[in-house]
Amino acid sequence: MFNDLSSPAALMATRRSGKPRDMGAPGPTQAQLDRILDAAIRVPDHGKLAPWRFVVIPKDRRAAFAELLEAAYREERPDPGKVELAAVHDFAMQGEALVVALSAPAHASHIPIWEQELSAGAACMNLLVAAHAEGLVGGWLTGWAAYSDRVRDAFGERGERIAGFLFLGTPTRPLEERPRPDRDAVVRIWQG
């Protein structure tokens, strides 16, 4: 069983993202989305800088988002094919809710940028776990659009980076496990 809500420990042990292309209704209610975003900002944040931002793209603005992505894609890749453009459009329309997460480090701070970027990643992870705790699924994607200055400029400012596109909804097909690393391959005991 994935995203077992019987206890916090069970949820963490069984957490599984959903594929945005396989998400459908219902999405989060406004109250659920507010709780999810409130949970997302309860992360380690050295210096209390809040080095992240979230931009919600409402369902009725997805077509405009698709247009932005297509324009940015054409700017970077002249003469794209129909299949490429369809994939760009489909990306924008996935999930019932979409949140753009931005890493927004305070460059003037003495807190290392790396620590601020880690905080942004933690905020994204909290957002996913909170969505699962609400009985939904979330999926965190990046791809070319996360690295496009034109797309970034639509949501953030120079010096900020898109940490990801977080899609939320209800799975329309059963979740499947993905390969996970063996614990012994990624954990060791320091011997000094």
Largest sheet: 5 strands, antiparallel
Q: How many extended strands?
A: 5
- Spans of at least 5 consecutive residues whose pLDDT stays below 50 are none
Class computed from helices, strands and strand pairing: alpha+beta
Strand % is 15-25%
Q: Percent of residues in helical segments?
A: 40-55%
Task: Sketch the topology as an H/E string, one letter per element.
Answer: HEHEHHEHEHEH
Average the pLDDT over all residues and give the rounded result.
96
Structural account:
This protein has 7 helices and 5 strands. It has helices spanning 8-14, 30-40, 62-76, 82-93, 113-133, 149-155, 183-186, and strands spanning 23-24, 52-57, 97-103, 137-141, 161-171. Strands 1, 2, 3, 4 and 5 form a 5-stranded antiparallel beta sheet that branches. Helix 3 runs antiparallel to helix 4 (82-93). The protein is globular, with a radius of gyration of 18 Å.
